[in-house]
Amino acid sequence: MRAFVVDRYRKTGNDLRAADLPEPEVGAHDVLVEIHAAGVNALDSKIRAGEFKLILPYRPPFVLGNDVAGVVIRVGARVRKFQPGDAVYARPDQDRIGAFAELIAIHEDDLALKPGQLTMAEAASIPLVGLTSWQALVEIANLQPGQKVLIHAGSGGVGTFAIQLAKHLGATVATTTSAANADLVRSLGADVVIDYRKDDFETVLHDYDVVLNSLDNTTLAKSLRVLRPGGRLISISGPPDPAFARELGKPWILRPVMRVLSHGIRRAAKRRQVTYSFLFMRANGNQLREITALIEAGIIRPVVDRVFPFDSTNEALAHVERGRAKGKVVITVKQEKS
């Protein structure tokens, strides 16, 4: 099969290598998926740069890619939820990424049937940002009607999904973006739009219940100022905390490292009587089915910035790294029949 491979960790000048690889092995609980489309995420760039090599088990060479939509072509002996011909989508488990390829083996518990009205490209844009938003706002924050949430980078992949989910949950939603993207985020449900180039969000917003951060450490620290006592600051861009190491089941020796990395923000949060959490989203087919129901009900819609052909995977990743995409970037691995 064709795939795009990381040969070594490097931040710049490190294009993925096009390669011919054997088909993935299919375990008893695995589903072999013919990939039609794959989402491209900032996470892919961070993994390629080696930002998670301390805590995630990727050893070059490996296939990159964390979002997939396609068709089941074979199932393992103990698979009961899917059968050949099913159109599916998923965020593969963190130990089994590899969506920038023609085939991938995924545990059946991490898969869900694709929303019927979405194209493969649209479906591939959903899993990682959808599960990230769900786990942040539903699982960790337990966001309730009438609460206030600030979602940074509202026009990005996570932002465009999280705004819609937060609005569905009944929250008042504020977001940061550029003036050029104000109409987009308002159309998704944002109530308060902060132009980050003109206004300081921490001086405009007050007494918020939840902040979802996907930006840098400066923005993370400023976000503490908008929270009420008892509020929650959730970051998907770090720094990781000791709870993250425990969740991953990593050796105890890594936990002090995580404690040091997050010491500053946890101490600052404690002073303001708020809670800091780092989220590295998990694959979860059950949650993805909840998301499917919202999409099929018309409550949430995908936002796709641009679709690249499979041969242009490196160009797609570069486009994401420039940080100007509105919504998600997708690559098409197999053309859909018209």
Automatic annotation (TrEMBL):
<dbReference type="InterPro" id="IPR002364">
    <property type="entry name" value="Quin_OxRdtase/zeta-crystal_CS"/>
</dbReference>
<dbReference type="GO" id="GO:0008270">
    <property type="term" value="F:zinc ion binding"/>
</dbReference>
<keyword id="KW-0560">Oxidoreductase</keyword>
<dbReference type="InterPro" id="IPR050700">
    <property type="entry name" value="YIM1/Zinc_Alcohol_DH_Fams"/>
</dbReference>
<protein>
    <submittedName>
        <fullName>Alcohol dehydrogenase</fullName>
    </submittedName>
</protein>
<feature type="domain" description="Enoyl reductase (ER)">
    <location>
        <begin position="13"/>
        <end position="331"/>
    </location>
</feature>
<dbReference type="Pfam" id="PF08240">
    <property type="entry name" value="ADH_N"/>
</dbReference>
<dbReference type="InterPro" id="IPR020843">
    <property type="entry name" value="ER"/>
</dbReference>
<dbReference type="InterPro" id="IPR011032">
    <property type="entry name" value="GroES-like_sf"/>
</dbReference>
<dbReference type="GO" id="GO:0016491">
    <property type="term" value="F:oxidoreductase activity"/>
</dbReference>
<dbReference type="InterPro" id="IPR013154">
    <property type="entry name" value="ADH-like_N"/>
</dbReference>
<dbReference type="Pfam" id="PF13602">
    <property type="entry name" value="ADH_zinc_N_2"/>
</dbReference>
<dbReference type="InterPro" id="IPR036291">
    <property type="entry name" value="NAD(P)-bd_dom_sf"/>
</dbReference>
